Amino acid sequence: xxxxxxxxxxxxxxxxxxxxxxxxxxxxxxxxxxxxxxxxxxxxxxxxxxxxxxxxxxxxxxxxxxxxxxxxxxxxxxxxxxxxxxxxxxxxxxxxxxxxxxxxxxxxxxxxxxxxxxxxxxxxxxxxxxxxxxxxxxxxxxxxxxxxxxxxxxxxxxxxxxxxxxxxxxxxxxxxxxxxxxxxxxxxxxxxxxxxxxxxxxxxxxxxxxxxxxxxxxxxxxxxxxxxxxxxxxxxxxxxxxxxxxxxxxxxxxxxxxxxxxxxxxxxxxxxxxxxxxxxxxxxxxxxxxx
Length: 291
Fold this sequence. Notes:
11 helices, mainly alpha, 2 domains
């Protein structure tokens, strides 16, 4: 019997030596871009979590190793047994983490690098003050409405009772309180309307401060006229409680808001690591060994 011999082509494909492709400069570029991404990952992790930089460095290196392992040259056995989907499932989370941390690091260093807190924009201060005032007047109206309902029930009860001098005096007092509360309710309905745009005033610092002072003074005067049964349950708004000199949230929160708003700064910070990631993938794939 003639022995069965393997095809030389098959032996070459399964066990033959692979020939390197590419050149040294390609690997050098990959190394430089990898160092940049790992460094920005480390700084971004530190800025976002406040944990020691060594932990951030470990996370950055681990994410990079996972990505490089997933785009390595597969062995013939892997090509036969796997379609490559699991490589994408492992590669994408590491790539997204690395890109996000790098983008946040660039944002912290370039866009939001001031040591002193930034002043809240005039429009944002007006918007925040509007919310505070509206919440206060909403609570006051709810308390007044509840008190008016209580007075109505009491008046109906007194009208169904036999008339007496004491009940007549109580009815007069309740009607007078009812009249005052209705006037206060009407004031709370109209007081907040012009806050966001007072007769075309400019949004500079002085006009905003003047508008806010006037509106909060009106709320304080109204609060002093409220009956004790209402004022004790509702806290008067204070102008000093507004965050005047700092933008809301920390760096990461501001970065996230800019990302959701697709601002030019956020897009620019995100574009840098994405481009580097694509270059690394292209260089590694084009320079890896071939059969």
